[in-house]
Design a protein that fits this description.
By secondary structure, this protein is mostly beta strands. It has three domains: 1-34 and 66-205, 7 Propeller (Methylamine Dehydrogenase, Chain H), CATH 2.130.10; 232-417, Galactose oxidase/kelch, beta-propeller (Methylamine Dehydrogenase, Chain H, 7 Propeller); 420-515, Immunoglobulin-like. Helices cover 8% and strands 33% of the residues. The chain is built from five helices and 39 strands. The strands form nine sheets. Strands 6-5-4-3-33-34 form a six-stranded antiparallel sheet, with no helix packed on it. Strands 1, 2, 27, 28 and 29 form a five-stranded antiparallel sheet that branches. The two termini are 40 Å apart. The structure holds copper (II) ion.
């Protein structure tokens, strides 16, 4: 696992080379388009048929027709402007990472190719408390595709207001496949990732202070064990500790207050590579589903497990399994607190894609199959919740399906087909912890749930940021009085979407507000 070199771009380069040669060899012999096999798996007609065949959208939701993105959405993050940043790796002799900014409401796409050298491929990311996106690490990949698996210390910062990138301070350690997580004090913790020589996982951890722009290496007591996976799934708990819920079977807890780790429970499945991990609403239970026992994959599992971190001796327990085994899928916390498991594959990175998403209800412990996704979204795919309650899906750099890789599609969950949506007439754009604030809505009488949802920042079945924070509230006439989260342990500082849900389970469109 540790020493498996993930020379995926080398493999991709070879595949592209073979593909190119195949096209050259077949062109004079046949008028049929090259890669007929690819087309047969995903023709436009089939896409339309699949979209047309969907059942009652109030039960299974509904997919929109795929749209051109013009880049492969391997990494995606929702900004508080409502726009989504996507980026992937430089191709050919290029040295800059291609990136696009999508205004999903209008379909407008702006090219925001990162304007400085750096291959921010398989980087970590988090949206910082001021709303800027911090991207950490990536691959020593210039010129493509010569260097396998070597990490870089570079960082990049995207400002959603100016819609521009700037280079951030280099980390103290090069990292490829790192995790970034915002701590309860507003700094960003960076951990794991392959080192600069691609020989080991970086054990040292470091934090970024966005006020000073400095990285600080934590004391040796904070070093993570050498057998850890990369892209660890780290979830901030109300205790202020951070729970590591995968891929390693042995879960861990990190305490930023003491810079120490302690072991928690073991997953029943074993190491669960490429399985999604989500902090459930309520913020104490961690949920995982899918994955494979070995890093290279093959042999997907349908199993799912939950651990309650709030009890004296937390244990992982199996819960209802999915209908489809899968790995490299995305878990998206929806506006009503359910989880959409979308994409993934069963036998390898790109083969045997699972195009039926499933919706997990953590209260009822049930999975429901959703409408078939028009494009396969396997390895290197992304999905996240949008402010209108829909889900955008993109990415997957399958060399045999470049068309799909360069598209995105939007899923409307069943809750958007269950009647009129409650509306938020006005709400503050900035709140502080414990503050009582007013949300004006003509639907106050029917509101059953009010929550803050942290925007997604995701890659490799790992959403570093998404978080569903319920808030207590009282109903008045035409308004709700809501109590903000008690502390940054519940909701780290930053931008959130404000959601109100009615008694039919229908969420509002979600305006952004900042917790300061
Ligand atoms: Cu990758």
């Amino acid at each position: 696992m540790l020493n498996v070199f993930r020379s995926e771009r080398n493999q991709l380069a070879v595949l592209l080379l073979i593909l190119g040669l195949t096209i050259l060899m077949t062109l004079p012999l046949s008028a049929e388009p090259a890669r007929a096999g690819q087309k047969a798996t995903n023709p436009t007609a089939a896409k339309k048929a699949q979209v047309g065949l969907r059942q009652d959208p109030a039960l299974v939701g509904s997919w929109g027709v795929p749209q051109q993105l013009g880049t492969v959405g391997i990494h995606a993050a929702l900004m508080h402007t409502g726009k989504v940043v996507f980026w992937w790796y430089p191709l050919g002799t290029a040295t800059n990472s291609p990136a696009k900014l999508l205004d999903y409401a209008t379909g407008t796409i702006t090219d925001i190719t990162i304007p400085f050298d750096g291959d921010f491929f398989c980087s970590g990311m988090t949206i910082m408390k001021d709303g800027r996106l911090l991207v950490i690490g990536g691959l020593l990949g210039d010129p493509f595709p010569h260097v396998p698996d070597k990490g870089i210390p570079q960082t990049a910062i995207f400002d959603p207001i100016t819609e521009t990138w700037s280079p951030g301070t280099n980390m103290n350690f090069a990292r490829w496949y790192p995790t970034a997580v915002e701590l309860n004090n507003g700094t960003v913790l960076a951990l794991t990732g392959k080192n600069a020589t691609a020989t080991a996982i970086v054990l040292q951890m470091e934090t970024y202070n966005l006020t000073t722009g400095k990285w600080t290496t934590l004391p040796g007591s904070a070093n993570i064990g050498p057998l850890s996976d990369t892209y660890l799934k780290m979830k901030l708990l109300p205790s202020g500790r951070i729970f590591m819920g995968g891929a390693n079977a042995q879960s861990l807890l990190f305490s930023p207050a003491t810079n120490t780790w302690k072991t928690s429970a073991k997953m029943n499945f074993g190491n669960r590579y490429h399985g999604g991990v989500t902090l459930l609403p309520g913020l104490t239970k961690v949920f995982t589903a899918g994955g494979t026992l070995t890093y290279p994959g093959g042999g997907a599992t349908a199993t799912a497990e939950v651990i309650d971190t709030s009890v004296a001796t937390p244990q992982w327990s199996f819960v209802a399994p999915m209908n489809f085994p899968r790995y490299n899928a995305n878990q998206v916390l929806l506006a009503d607190g359910t989880i959409l498991e979308v994409g993934g594959a069963q036998v390898s990175k790109y083969l045997s894609p699972v195009t039926t998403p499933e919706l997990y209800d953590p209260v009822a412990n049930t999975w429901t199959e959703m409408s078939v996704q028009p494009n396969p979204r396997t390895y290197h795919s992304t999905a996240l919740l949008l402010p209108d309650g829909t889900v955008i899906a993109a990415g997957s750099d399958d060399p045999a399906n470049v068309t799909a890789g360069n598209e995105y599609e939007i899923f409307s969950p069943p809750y958007l087909f269950k009647g009129a949506r409650p509306t938020i007439t006005s709400a503050p754009t900035s709140i502080t912890y414990k503050q009582q604030f007013t949300v004006t809505t003509p639907d106050a009488a029917s509101i059953t749930r009010v929550a803050l949802i942290r925007p997604g920042a995701t890659t490799h079945d790992n959403d570093f940021d998404q978080r569903f924070v319920d808030m207590t509230f009282t109903k008045g006439t035409g308004q709700l009085t809501v109590t903000a989260p008690l502390s940054s342990n519940y909701a780290p500082q930053g931008w959130y979407m404000l959601m109100i849900l009615n008694s039919s389970g229908v969420p509002s469109v979600m305006p952004f507000l900042q917790i300061q």
